[in-house]
Amino acid sequence: MDKKTLIRLFFQMLRIRIIEEKIAEHYTNQEMRCPVHLCIGQEAIPVGVCAHLTNEDYVMSNHRSHGHYLAKGGGLKCMMAEIYGKANGCSSGKGGSMHLTDPSVGFLGATPIVASSIPIAVGTAFAGQLKGEDRVSVAFFGDGATEEGVFHECLNFAALKKLPIIFICENNLYSVYSPLQVRQPEGRRISTLAKGHKIETHLGDGNDVINVYRLTKKAVERARSEKGPSLLEFMTYRFREHCGPAFDNDLGYRSKSEALGWEHRCPIKKMRKFLGDKGIITDGDIVQMEKEIEDEIDSALTYAQKGPFPTEDILMDHVYAS
Amino acid sequence: MPVQRIRPFFQAINEAIAQCMADDPYVYIIGLGVPDPKGIFGTTLGLVEKFGPKRVMDMPTSENAMTGIAIGSAIVGMRPIMTHQRIDFALLALDQIVNQAANWHYMFGGQMHAPLVIRMIIGRGWGQGPQHSQSLQNWFAHIPGLKVVMPTTPYDAKGLLITSIEDNNPVIFLEHRWLYHIKGHVPEEIYRVPLGQASVIRQGKDVTIVSTSHMTLEALRASQLLEKEGVRTEIIDVRTLKPLDQATILESVRKTGRLVVADTGWRFCGYSAEIIACVTENLFDELKSPPIRIGLPDCPSPTSPALSRYYYPGANEIINAALKSVGRKTNKETMYIKPTKPHDIPDADFTGPF
Questions:
Q1: Active site residue B132
Q2: Spatial contact of A33 and A93, defined as CB atoms under 8 Å apart
Q3: Whether the Cβ atoms of residue B239 and residue B197 lie closer than 8 Å to each other
Q4: Residue A284 forms contact with B (CB below 8 Å)
Q5: What does B302-320 look like in DSSP terms, one character per residue?
Q6: CATH number of this structure's domain A3-171+188-237+252-307, picked from the four choices 3.40.50.970, 3.40.50.1970, 3.90.70.10, 3.40.50.150
Q7: Is A120 within 8 Å of B68 when comparing Cβ atoms?
Q8: pLDDT digits (tens, 9 = 90+) for B290-319
Q9: What's residue A237's pLDDT?
Q10: A118 CB near a chain B CB, below 8 Å?
Q11: How far apart are CA A215 and CA B88, in angstroms?
């Protein structure tokens, strides 16, 4: 991998981290009046995956979508405005954090019903195949989604039609507060489920952006060369609560030592050390990056905070398309 | 009068699909059994030969995923027609229909749309029982973002299906099994019947009967006898439950002052209640008698013909209601129209199994 790519991956993870932290910081002001599911700790997966996608490729996401949206190139200003419920938001204030969209970059949409956006992603890949287009679709989902019937239905159909789709499972071990061990059989990996459908599958370290990048590269090449779907399971961990800005390790549903262990495996710290050790970036470079990102966020926050609220006259708009 | 081109309802559906597919390369049809030898009551026969297996597709028995896949294809430019042999099976796909398709345009601020037709077959009789003959149109009509269409005549079946396929929204298209062999005039060329327009199929000044799908045929039978009794009925076939053509219904009730609603579904929380609410909210003072609704009793659909005969209302119940609304003495037990066939089959030729 060339230096430029490595730096770009690092920068994008750092950008998502700082944006999410800024949302957490401002959330308590009660101006963002919708649930937010922050992806702090999980940044390597969207960044490593989306690095291989163009604006022509499609992404569908779930409730924890900020990272996917930003990594795919979704506009920051209209995302912030959407979370603030403003008319200049990416969904005109009708969607909020759980319904981000930026069709101009192929981020079609995020929806929070668990696993529910997976078939829609498969449908976009199906349409591409029917139309003879050269596009790849990606479905992002969590470990909980693999317990839904529709996930298995999708694997079956994607394999049947050899669709250009990549299933990305971000396994962060918890469905809200329910740990994996009360939900899935011991010793059976999610990635092996896809093998039963003869879908190419790999298990990777979701906190190692280079690992994510490399595994996804192969999956995207497979999809582009009409060899069919892949499923990649990436192990990761959300640092904060399921929904909201806070840390919640004091609740006792996961141990402090477990959380601490994952904190040591923070994807950004890891990449920072790697790049530092290789002499690819310096602390000064990072300070510069942070400044650039913070300036961008400040301007996005202003855009969101000063943006107009939608007015009553648009309440009934867009129920039906004309 | 121009020459009538008489065709059965199932063929009208078939023509609508074929002509839309010929007209627009992005239209495809998918559903369990779509290309099979029975061809969904004949509605999909010959399509695979005409348009090939890439546009006329069978599918895995995965109603929920396949509906999502159809939606996904629709938001990036395709125009899928999804077909379910029974509405009851489509319930597996409610997440995709209600959470996704219905909301898609609105929740992303109008940037995308999901043009999708979901055909669902409803019906009655021949022991179809609790899970093969439910009539759940009111569920879908309850959801903002969906359109709900229920044709009665072959002419409307073709014209409404063409309009539904060309519509940029998810449309639930409900076909009653007992209508497939009803015959009527069906023009050969492509034509459109607009959504959101009810059809006044009989004019009269005494009682307005608002009906859906197969109950419109029962209303027509009832109206002939009522005419002999001196009660002139105006029959309005709703055709599209959503958007509802309130104006046509209100105009009629303004004239008659009396309303009977005959729906194929359950009475309780049913579509008939919506029609009555619409009329009483707008014309309360002009009503000469309380509106009456005719629908299914509040129990599951029984299988045995010995029970189903008490379950499904028909022309006799409509006659009874209309007479009651004009202040005549009525008797629930009276068979105003003597049956010419067993109650659990659509016509004398029907021998099962579905």
A1: yes
A2: no
A3: yes
A4: no
A5: --SHHHHHHH---HHHHHH
A6: 3.40.50.970
A7: yes
A8: 999 999 999 999 999 999 999 999 999 999
A9: 98
A10: yes
A11: 42
